[in-house]
Design brief:
With 618 residues, the protein is an alpha/beta fold. It contains 16 helices and 26 strands. Bound molecules: FE2/S2 (inorganic) cluster.
Length: 618
């Protein structure tokens, strides 16, 4: 065994000689950006060694690696963590641009008031006392009798596992009054002594990049705690396709990735229950929503069939699994309810967004858009619903662009010019706890859209996406090292990384490809339904919440529509999972919607390519 130390976190892990730096980093708990999932393609996992690492301490530079490495700074050598293997004890420096921020992702949410009807209820009953004359009824029989007398004859006898859990909890202590938790009013889920009125559940929103957990008081219709965090699976690739590819290549990764996801969800649950001063055992119900790949990974279902046409799911139906089978740290027999998937590429997160809408919201020609690594679209025409998903790529998450990063403190989320052709201004995301404004580190998804819109408006970028090299704006230059045109938005002297923050021609192409995929999806759904204009657009998702509607219209991401007709609705997938937690009716609504919605697979459409190419123009 050798020892690898990571700086500046000063974390050390043991490693076998020959292991990749990126794998050792995961084990050490050091998060290194890895847009391509460690395939040596994106160049985001660059790390440094002080001077040249001692000869033989790490593997030699590979031919393909050189092209992705920046110029070495004096005294440091750059390498890619996914292509470099450690051979002897060494120290790896993770530069700021390769670090994945631990700051909780922004997850704006909306409180909705609906009639509540949770799946779990509590009932307190008095057990028949046992005296010397008998009858000598069992604990289970006395519970059954008490429930019968209390007009709950329909409740099934407690199962052996529930009795085993309760008898361990009671440990032989006699009790005359007990409170049972009932699942769907007919099955005993938990038995506790005395009167218990509290009733808690957790709603989970499992995104490709970030996770959110909402601890809810199901009795009082309140959100008690909210926690969000990064999906640790980003270490296996920014997008779901990279993660599926890893499992296809190395099937045991499924278990590793599932564990990483469940551990992260447990961390969020632990945070909320500790803050609320309750125990994990008090959480008696869970609802989870996700895109198809994340849902498969959460449930331990192999997602490989989702990676290629015809994108078949292992299971699309709504259902329940006991928390203990997923190692989710709530009451072990609590049911984890999963909303239905619409297809192999449109997930329960989309269904979840839809159940936040009232029927009147879907009158007329209404588009619901959730933009992330994939763009998920639902078009309603007078209540008839069609859905699709477009491969927008990770550009809107701030990934796979030169100076991209996810929306975290230090990310630039907005650009503008103080006058046409004038000085570039920008807004950085503040530290959520201290409200301090860090120096800029990179550009997040909304910042990328904002930058491209600013460059378009200033005439630095033409409508076909090419830089206008004759425009004369001082930000525009040809990068001497790469020979590629770029607009330097913030000089190195003002950044955290001591490097220019720039938008390159390749970045603009990535935005064009992403927005064209989304626009083509919208155009095809509209064409199929014979719609020529939209009355309203609901913009769901964290990214959508921070977009400026004027900017997305300027770059042609949506068909022309009044700015006031575009309504950001926040993290609606998380909101919908909470609604399903509070209401069995909402769970049924999700099932009904999934049966009603027609799903369009864009890659099977012969007209897609033509519409896509037409949509490339800004
Ligand atoms: S090049 Fe190493 S993760 Fe992409």
């Amino acid at each position: 065994m050798i020892h690898v130390t990571f700086q500046p976190s000063n974390k050390t892990a043991e490693a076998n000689p020959g292991e990749r730096v990126i794998d050792v980093a995961v084990r050490a708990g050091v998060k290194i950006a890895s847009d391509c999932g460690g395939r040596g393609k994106c160049g985001r996992c660059r790390v440094q060694f002080e001077a040249a690492p001692a000869a033989g301490a790490v593997s030699d530079v590979l031919p393909g690696e050189m092209a992705l490495l920046p110029e070495n700074r004096e005294g440091y050598v750059y390498r890619l963590a996914c292509l470099t293997r450690v051979l002897e004890d060494c120290t790896v420096i993770v530069p700021p641009e390769s670090r994945v921020s631990d700051a909780a992702p922004r997850k704006p949410f909306t409180r909705y008031k609906i009639p509540i009807r949770p799946a779990v209820t509590r009932r307190t009953v008095t057990l028949q006392s046992v005296n010397r004359e008998g009858p000598f009824l069992s604990f289970a029989a006395r519970i059954r009798n008490a429930l019968r007398e209390g007009d709950a004859d329909h409740v099934a006898a407690p199962s052996f596992p529930i009795l085993a859990e309760a008898s361990a909890y009671l440990s032989g202590k006699p009790c005359t009054e007990i409170t049972v938790a009932l699942f769907k009013d007919k099955e005993i889920l938990q038995i506790r002594p005395g009167v218990r009125e509290d009733l808690f559940g957790v709603a989970l929103d499992l995104g490709t990049t970030s996770l959110a957990a909402f601890l809810c008081d199901l009795k009082r219709d309140r959100i008690v705690g909210v926690a969000s965090g990064l999906n640790p699976q980003v270490s296996y690739g920014e997008d779901v396709i990279s993660r599926i590819a890893q499992i296809q290549k190395d099937p045991p990764k499924l278990e590793i990735m599932q564990k990483a996801l469940v551990d992260a969800a447990n961390g969020l649950i632990r945070h909320t229950v500790e803050e609320a001063g309750i125990s994990n055992d008090d959480v008696l119900d869970v609802v989870a929503v996700a895109n198809p790949t994340m849902q498969h990974l959460f449930l331990g279902l192999n997602p490989v069939s989702l990676g290629e046409a015809p994108y078949l799911t292992v299971c699309s139906e709504a259902g329940e699994v006991e928390a203990r089978h997923l190692n989710l740290q709530v009451f072990p027999y609590a049911r984890v309810h999963i909303l239905p998937l619409l297809s192999g590429f449109v997930g329960s997160d989309t269904v979840s967004v839809l159940i936040t809408r009232k029927p009147e919201d879907l009158r007329g020609n209404v588009l619901m858009v959730d933009v992330g690594t994939n763009g998920e679209l639902v078009l309603a025409r007078d209540g008839i619903l069609t859905a699709t998903s477009c491969a927008t790529g990770p550009v809107f998450e701030g990934a796979q662009i030169k100076c991209g990063m996810r929306a975290a403190p230090g990310a630039i989320e907005k650009f503008w010019m103080d006058a046409p052709g004038g000085t570039i201004q920008y807004r950085v995301i503040a530290d959520q706890e201290t409200q301090n404004l860090p120096k800029p580190q990179g550009i997040c998804g909304s910042g990328v859209i904002s930058a491209v819109t600013m460059l378009l408006r200033a005439g630095i970028v033409r409508r076909d996406g090419a830089f206008d090299l004759d425009c004369g704006h001082p930000s525009l230059r040809i990068n001497a090292a790469t020979g590629v045109a770029e607009a330097v938005l913030i000089p190195a002297t003002l950044t955290q990384t001591d490097r220019n923050i720039a938008i390159t021609q390749n970045d603009i192409r990535a935005v064009q490809l992403g927005k064209a995929a989304l626009r083509a999806g919208i155009e095809i759904l509209m064409k199929d339904r014979g719609i020529e204009h939209l009355d309203r657009i609901f913009l769901a998702g964290t990214f959508g919440n921070y977009l400026d509607p004027r900017e997305v219209l300027d770059i042609g991401m949506f068909p022309p529509i009044g700015v006031d007709r575009i309504e950001p609705i926040g993290n609606a997938a998380g909101d919908g999972s909470r609604l399903a937690l509070f209401s069995l009716d909402k769970r049924q609504e999700a099932v009904d919607l999934a049966e009603r919605i027609q799903v369009v697979e864009l890659s099977m459409r012969p007209d897609f390519q033509e519409v896509f190419v037409d949509s490339m123009q800004f």
